[in-house]
Specification:
five-stranded parallel β-sheet, 3 domains, four-stranded mixed β-sheet, alpha/beta, FAD/NAD(P)-binding domain, 9 helices
Length: about 375
């Protein structure tokens, strides 16, 4: 059985590292990078240049998977071909698509052209370099920084930058950089319960961050500033030297097929086995997949779920190779933690009986670190 796994993100690498050698398996993992990025720590790379990548070759030792470094340019489900930029064209018996997402700028004028984003290590390096330049003695531009979007990524990035801000200001004897967190919705972190959200807001204000909820970004400008809509229906220009947009994602638009449907954010609808209904043998995982759980609720595109999908996919492929029946994917939530810079965090863990336990401060930070460590260890 000839299997292609596209993408070494959370879903793809979880599937690949879970596939032990088998006589009936011929598996190739295709990714443009020779490493897996721990995206849940990209905010740390952006603020402190923390190493957040894992080389792929050692992770794949002892598996049934060989690695090909290539950039996928198109997946044609009608012809059964995967094309790459300047590289070979691949065919398959089973296809596992985990190519991830790109930033969704929602067609806001000037935003894609002038705002930074945080999706790759290159993005993190660029933010790190810019923030450090703000404290050079000969820097003369606007030093203010705007983070657009107060979801998980936006909050983690701005609190990490706020901590770095304090360190650099003390080191160089300069005034700290002004930080803005801009959100179109009425609250930050809408998926977080009100009590924890209040804890986060207190931390943000203690850092000196200006929180602007109910402020929709209307336009991005070449100098790094933005124009926002205000709650009273007016407009305001926020002068800044850099805007980083973290306000949304959309699936990579690489998969084509006459019978292919697209869901919200360009995500591809899949059934309970993560298979594309119109294309048997084609599975979509992670940010690209639009699936529903046993209660009919849409599954969120997050790292925790993508890792579960990858391990599930490996189990199903091994079952197929052994001629055994397959099963449906059953997602589960272990909890969620949000880093707030340094040893601070908030979050919750699930308990028996559909209960949750909330944690704040260093205990929450330790739980977040433990979950990230478990993820890395699960790949080795």
């Amino acid at each position: 059985m000839k299997i292609l796994i596209l993408g070494a993100g959370y879903a793809g690498i979880a599937a690949a590292t879970s596939l032990k050698p088998h006589a009936n398996l011929d598996v190739t993992l295709i990714d443009r990078n020779p490493y897996h990025t721990v995206e849940t720590r990209l905010h740390e790379a952006a603020a402190h240049r923390t190493k957040v990548t894992l080389p792929l070759a050692p992770l794949l030792q002892g598996t049934a998977v060989k690695l090909d470094l290539a950039q996928v340019s198109e997946v044609n489900l009608d012809t059964g071909e995967v094309k790459t930029n300047g590289g070979p064209t691949y065919t398959y018996d089973k296809l596992v698509v985990g190519l991830g997402s790109v930033t969704n700028f929602f067609r806001i004028p000037g935003l894609a052209e002038h705002a930074a984003e945080l999706k790759t290590t290159e993005d993190a390096d660029a933010i790190y370099a810019h923030f450090n330049r703000l404290f050079e003695p000969n820097y003369t531009g606007n030093r203010d920084v705007v983070i657009g979007g107060a979801g998980l990524t936006g909050v983690e990035l701005i609190t990490e930058l706020a901590q770095r801000n304090q360190q650099l200001a003390e080191k160089h004897g300069l005034k700290p950089v002004k930080l803005y967190l801009v959100e179109a919705a009425p609250t930050i972190l809408p998926i977080v319960e009100a009590k924890l959200r209040s804890e986060v807001e207190k931390v943000l204000r203690d850092y000196g961050i200006e929180i602007l909820t109910n402020h929709k970004i209307l336009e991005g400008h070449s100098d790094g500033s933005i124009t926002v809509g205000t709650p009273d229906g007016g407009k305001r220009r926020i002068e800044a030297g850099k805007t980083v947009w973290t306000g949304g994602i959309m699936a990579r638009d690489l998969v084509k097929g006459e019978k292919l449907e697209k869901g919200p954010g360009g995500r591809i609808p899949v059934d309970r086995t993560l298979q594309v209904p119109a294309y048997p043998g084609v599975y979509v995982l992670g940010d690209m997949a639009f699936g529903k759980d046993e209660h009919g609720n849409p599954m969120p595109p997050n790292a925790q779920l993508a890792g579960q999908q990858g391990r599930y996919m490996a189990e199903q492929l091994l079952a197929m190779a052994n001629g055994k029946p397959t099963s449906e994917f059953m997602p589960y939530t272990q909890g969620e933690f949000i880093s707030l810079g340094g040893l601070n965090a908030v979050g919750w863990v699930t308990l028996p009986g559909d209960k949750k336990m909330s944690l704040t401060g260093p205990p929450a930070h330790l739980m977040k670190r433990a979950s990230e460590t478990r993820w890395v260890l699960s790949l080795k």
